[in-house]
Amino acid sequence: MRKLFGILVFLGIVNAVAVDSLTQDRIKAIQDEISLLDKKLDGEQNPWIRKYNNSAKYASILNQIKSLEWQIKRTKPTSSNTEQLQVLNNRLETLQRQKSFFTDEKNPYKELTEIKDIEKIPTITNPIAIIGAKDFIKQIRSQEKTLQNNLDSLKDTIRALQEKKALLDALLNLEDKSQNSETLEEIQRLQNIKIELEGAQSILETSIEVYSRKSNDIISKLEEQIQKQTIKTIYVLIICITIFFIALAIKFALKKYLDQERLYIANKIVNFANIIIIAIVLLLSYLNNITYLVTFLGFVSAGLAFAMRDLFMSFLGWFVIIIGGGLHVGDRIRVHRDNTTYVGDILDISMTRITLLEDVTLNTYMETRRAGRIIFIPNNLIFTTIISNYTHGGMTTVWDGIDFTITFDSNHKRATEIVQEVARKHSKPHIESGKKRLLQLKERYSIKRISLEPRVFNMIEPNGVRISLWYQSNAFTILNLRSTISLEIIEQIGKEPDIKLAYPTTKIVNTGSDGVWERFTHEPHPKECDEGKNETKSVF
Fold first, then answer.
1. Considering the entire predicted model, what is its pTM?
2. Which of 113, 231, 285, 300 is the most buried (most CB within 10 A)?
């Protein structure tokens, strides 16, 4: 019997040891799981637990402040408790400073649950506004995604709290009663955290639901506006491209019917009209209230007309030049400004100025002695300055003249014949070209005389008979033809013994004669033959 009792005691001890070993293993496993959950619930990593801890600390500080204030109020100052009151006041001051560090603890979860007010919803009235609307939609969705992430994080935190509480409940059944108090306190703390976070979860879910409906409605309206504006933009682009190709077709058509000089101006007119039409299309398409634009442009135009008269007049001058057709690119013109004359070819006519390339002409030979410069002429000068166009209306010829003087005793009839022959020889092609152009201009202007044959005029001057020759010359090669004709006239006159060019001279007559005899007979006076004293000396 004793042996049997001993065996039973031994078996009971072994069983108790085995059970105790299993319990310890189970406790260790639970503690490991709790350690993993503690990492998720770490106040440094988990924003919700951090907010709760801050809120709890803030509440603790408030309770301590109230307790200290109550103690200070109840403690009457005496000589024996002065030091105690000083300690209490110091602690109160420290706690109040700590309290000032907490700013939003009345609503600790505001940062994680707050829904930012939706800014002014953009109105899509042009293609550029589409970009802003897209960014606005991204901001709304980003805010919604942030709130949803916060909600997911909150749910994970509550789930971790529930798991930890369950583990602590299991641990409570396995631990000794001496350790139950700490576990019970932890369970109570977790329960408090869970209740508060579930309240925050309820608020956050409601906020997300309201925000989601509102944001979806806004996004739907914006996407509808974007779609309409995209279609409108496509239509406007089609219209602009159509206008561009129409202008291109007009340019090709003009190229077949206009010469190179007029084609340049015509292309500029087409380009300007193209830009203006496209600008009007864009304004009418995307301007909400055209009345505001008209009023604004009216005030701006009045201000510009007063403050920038020259610029405004230059623009008006450009308009007159383009519409009137008085000047074209390639024309040779002559402009006199500030006691200086400029002659050259038009390179460009912009909205503010005429660009002129100064050529070597009679003007540069006789006056400026400079050529090859680029001259910029403001368009407003057409209203205040006379501008001579050498090649207006397709004309390529102008009258040029050469003057020289022969002595009174020269054969002026023969001299006239010589200059006429030389001029006719060299100006013949220009005469034919000029007649064709004048016949064309006759349709536009009242031209009664079209004779372009060389003209010679004989005038009596104090020092002889002045012969003035006028002939047709190409407007761009006047100086070249003048040089050629001048040399040939000198050459032909040099072959004539009875023609003498007059130039400043001094004539000394020792016979008492005044030279009349030589003028009519070309023979020396009999007295001069006897004395042989007739001499002419140049003053130079």
1. 0.49
2. 113
